[in-house]
């Protein structure tokens, strides 16, 4: 049975502390906030955790509302924000982020309740609730959101599932880099859904697509890629992005594939649900050879 604790409302403190050590995550958000926030702006930090995003925004001269439901994290953030000299610029709000309404219009909303495939944590639910509450209080003009969008993709791979001689095809998290030991890419990632946070979106996936193999090998896993566009820099014609960890989901029936083979894939699951809903929601058909198709035609 799902509960707020399971779905990420109360992630253990040590997990938040470990996130502070993730230089890729920290640098990406720090750069995005530095490029986006200007002195005098007002920022809301939904699900503020240890307060690090609030700190980044305050250091750029913003007035910040830090919002967090977990009382342990509220206490930690209050201590850290004071320790870092920005407590006078950050208002700490102990409240569920889905119910928070800022007392004034704001310029930017940061929310990092992100997990692979947008499952487990409540990014889409919280942003959807915030937008409805905000429009009711302050009118239709929405603030900017960070991240601005999330792109979800799936990629065919050959994955090694050997652990000290023990064969166990299990879901595996990976660092978000293309080349990972034990993983061989068989084709390019295919985007199966895009969520733009300042627009209307659905909180579920129901996608069917065809992936073409660019390399021969044993197709025995799907790599789920989650790219978060933190900030689009229009003048520079650039973007600042951060990827969640990749997730490789094993296939029940591995298939031998050749270059040019095509696989039809279907993905169905709800955002903010269990991780198992994501990997259980992926199904595929048999490999179809393009050469055989041309001969048959």
Automatic annotation (TrEMBL):
The keyword Heme does not apply. One of its GO terms (molecular function) is histone methyltransferase activity. Residues 43-128 form the Methyltransferase domain. InterPro entries: Arg_MeTrfase (IPR025799), Methyltransf_25 (IPR041698), SAM-dependent_MTases_sf (IPR029063). The keyword Transferase applies. Keywords: Methyltransferase, Transferase. One of its GO terms (biological process) is methylation. PANTHER family: PROTEIN ARGININE N-METHYLTRANSFERASE (PTHR11006), PROTEIN ARGININE N-METHYLTRANSFERASE 3 (PTHR11006:SF53). This is Methyltransferase type 12. It comes from Blastopirellula marina.
């Amino acid at each position: 049975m799902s509960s707020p604790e399971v779905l990420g409302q109360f992630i253990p403190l040590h997990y938040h502390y470990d996130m502070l050590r993730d230089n890729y995550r920290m640098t990406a958000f720090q750069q995005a906030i530095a490029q986006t926030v200007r002195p005098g702006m007002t920022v809301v930090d939904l699900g503020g955790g240890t307060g690090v995003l609030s700190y980044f925004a305050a250091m750029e001269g913003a007035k910040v509302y830090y919002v967090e439901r977990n009382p342990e994290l509220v206490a930690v953030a209050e201590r850290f924000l004071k320790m870092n000299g920005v407590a006078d610029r950050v208002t700490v709000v102990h409240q569920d982020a889905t119910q928070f309404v800022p007392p004034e219009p704001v310029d930017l909303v940061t929310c990092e309740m992100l997990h692979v495939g947008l499952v487990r944590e409540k990014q889409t639910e919280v942003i959807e609730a915030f937008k409805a509450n905000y429009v009711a209080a302050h009118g239709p003009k929405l603030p900017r959101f960070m991240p601005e969008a999330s792109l979800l993709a799936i990629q065919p791979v050959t994955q090694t599932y050997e652990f000290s001689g023990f064969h166990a095809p299990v879901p595996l998290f990976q660092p978000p880099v293309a080349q990972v030991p034990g993983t061989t890419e068989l084709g390019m990632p295919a985007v199966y859904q895009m969520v733009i946070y300042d627009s209307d979106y659905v909180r579920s996936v129901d996608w069917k697509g065809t992936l073409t193999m660019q390399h021969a090998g044993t197709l025995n896993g799907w790599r789920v890629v989650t790219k978060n566009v933190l900030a689009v820099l229009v003048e520079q014609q650039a973007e600042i992005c951060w990827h969640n960890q990749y997730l490789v989901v094993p296939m029940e029936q591995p298939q031998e594939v050749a270059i040019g083979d095509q696989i039809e894939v279907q993905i169905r699951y709800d955002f903010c649900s269990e991780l198992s809903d994501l990997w259980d929601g992926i199904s595929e058909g048999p490999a179809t050879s393009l050469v055989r198709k041309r001969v048959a035609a």
